[in-house]
Specification:
Chain lengths: 353, 239
């Protein structure tokens, strides 16, 4: 049954992604396209945590650190280089190296799950504090001012490779982001089906057993942590292209949000956090406009999100994907109850998932 | 005598003031089958943990074919060819039985060969019928069998079994006895067990642990009739 859900997820992502990829730029106005680009960029961020938390069991509370580093590296490098292709490459590379360093200390130090969450959160908050106070000329990196809490409003937009100054239009950025989201999603799917991916999942299930079989758990965890860091950095790079970089990229709300997306969507799946992310973004946007409507001024998006999180943790711990799987099973049971043989088959399958 | 496969010299494991393993000298020859018995808390499982790197010994040496392995890490020891079935089954609860065994086989063999080895190991242990079941939902005895299949799939030179018969049905125990004899044709085994019936069926040489140290070691018939063994083990159990 979970295999059905997984295939269903693939189809949903493919149709949704391709539909957005070709439909939206033709139909929608620029404002909507830019918004959709931000959603898609955040969806890659959701994917990064879905991978390392849901499949490798690493609860990283600081994906925002790699997200922000990706954005800032891109902005600073692009301003200094005068072209963006190598800046984009550096924006992925540098946070990945940072993830390698951080991961090395955590995994070789055998830090337990809870402390790992605390350490990663602390790292992202340290970066947040640091970047926030970088106003003033002494914090210029080459030609790029870090700009303190204002960030870098002059974040350059990606140019076509090899043609500095020839910037991508918002529609192009959108297509690029959705395209990369699709590649990231199916890339993760493929990764999880490889030997490496299956062993990662086994390590999540029982670290001691994996060690006793001869797997160096630290190496595997470090590798997946770096992949998660690279994805978050990619997300930051794309976000920087649809908005601009500012210290809020490192902030607690961003870190918290990613975890909310994953919980609401369904931990242990890729499609869940992706859908959770987009739904929450749409919801936040709608709530943001709702309080201008008469009588709804009291509505605070964060409050609603908080209540939603509590409801999900308490009542729907397996998230939207779990809910969908249960509903699917229930429907299948209803339609098949008519013939006894089929009913038995369903029973066998549920007792034998 | 040739160099032992496994040897410990003065192996000691302390937890604060408690000495769980106290200066154990132990030697196991290639392809030997050794049973280790002793009352609860005698240090058998801690001894196993020291052998497999789950605990770094406080003092003493562990030699595998003459190479010191104390403190080099579980995965490195496993790679030398040591497989262990732990007392509390260490399995991948969320995965199917077959995926469990595959994870063991995939460490030593690539692609297609890993798949073949997985099927062979499951067949030898007799769990082919439950290949698709999620291990977390299996009975204790079946989980033991899955873990056993994981241990033998990589064909380690030394197999350590900590209470392998616990929770098994009579048929499963019969199969286990046959399997241990068969494994012993090519592999060395150390088996920790409480079930004396079981020990009688498989053992030749028995080592008795008591309060962290080796009390006595020798032929199974002699050990099981020994006064001191009765006192510390059977006596206590009857009391």
């Amino acid at each position: 049954m979970s295999r059905v859900a997984s295939h269903l997820g693939n189809v949903v992502v493919l149709i949704g992604g391709l539909g957005a990829l070709f439909g939206l730029p033709a139909l929608a106005e620029t404002y909507l396209i830019i918004n959709a680009t931000i959603f898609a960029a955040f969806a890659i961020l959701a994917l990064s945590l879905a991978l390392i938390w849901g499949y490798a069991g690493i609860l990283c509370f600081g994906q925002a650190a790699f997200f922000g580093l990706g954005g800032y590296t891109y902005a600073v490098a692009a301003i200094n280089f005068g072209e963006t292709t190598s800046a984009a490459a550096l924006a992925i590379l540098l946070p990945t190296i940072f993830a390698a360093l951080l991961g090395y200390f955590m995994f070789w130090g055998r830090i337990s799950d809870v402390y790992l969450g605390v350490i990663t959160l602390t790292v992202s908050l340290i970066l947040y504090r640091f970047v926030n106070q970088t106003a003033g000329e002494q914090w210029n990196i080459g030609d790029a001012p870090l700009g303190g809490f204002n960030g870098i409003p002059a974040t350059p937009i990606l140019n076509w490779p090899g043609r500095p100054g020839d910037q991508l239009a918002p529609e192009n950025i959108f297509s690029l982001t959705v395209g990369l989201l699709l590649i990231a999603y199916f890339g993760c799917k493929i990764l999880l089906a490889t030997r490496f991916g299956r062993i990662i999942v086994a390590i999540r299930e029982n670290e001691t057993r994996a060690e006793l079989l001869g797997y160096d758990v630290r190496l595997y965890k470090l590798a997946i942590f770096m992949i998660g860091g690279a994805l978050a950095a990619l997300s930051g790079l794309l976000f920087a292209n649809s908005v601009f970089v500012s210290p809020t990229m490192f902030s607690l709300p961003v870190s918290g949000q990613i975890i909310i997306w994953v919980i609401i969507g369904g931990l242990g799946t890729l499609i869940g956090p992706l859908i959770g992310c987009i739904l929450m973004q749409v919801l936040t946007n709608q709530l943001g406009t709702l309080n201008q409507v008469k009588g709804f001024a009291w509505v605070d998006p964060n409050l609603v999100l908080g209540v939603l999180l509590v409801v999900f943790v308490l009542l729907v711990p397996r998230g939207l994907t779990g809910l969908a799987t249960d509903a699917w099973r229930w429907l299948a049971g209803l339609t098949r109850r008519r013939s006894p043989a089929a009913a038995q088959a369903v029973q066998e399958r549920t007792s034998n998932p | 005598m040739s160099e032992p496969l496994l040897q410990t010299r003065g192996l000691t494991m302390r937890f604060g003031g408690v000495v769980a393993v106290d200066g154990v000298d132990f030697a196991l020859q290639e392809a030997e089958l050794r049973c280790v018995i002793g009352p609860n808390g005698a240090g058998k499982s801690t001894f196993f943990k020291c052998l497999t790197g789950q605990l770094p010994p406080s003092a003493g040496d562990v030699l595998f074919r003459g190479t010191p392995i104390a403190g080099i890490g579980s995965h490195a020891i496993a790679r030398l060819g040591v497989g262990i079935k732990t007392q509390v089954p260490n399995v991948f609860d969320g995965l199917s039985a077959r995926d469990n065994v595959w994870t063991a086989a995939a460490r030593v063999a690539p692609g297609r060969i890993a798949e073949q080895r997985t099927d062979q190991a499951m067949e030898r242990v007799g769990i082919t019928a439950i290949a698709g079941r999620i291990v977390g939902q299996l009975a204790h005895g079946q989980r033991q069998l899955v873990e056993l299949a994981m241990v033998i799939a990589p064909e380690p030179d030394l197999i350590l079994l900590d209470e392998p018969a616990a929770g098994m049905t009579d048929e499963e125990v019969d199969r286990l006895v046959g399997l241990i004899r068969e494994l012993n044709q090519r592999h060395a085994l150390v088996v920790v067990e409480h079930d004396m019936q079981f020990i009688r069926r498989i053992a030749r040489t028995v080592t008795v642990f008591h309060q962290g140290a080796v009390l006595i070691e020798g032929d199974v018939a002699r050990i099981l009739t020994d006064e001191r063994v009765r006192d510390v083990y059977l006596g206590k159990r009857a009391a």
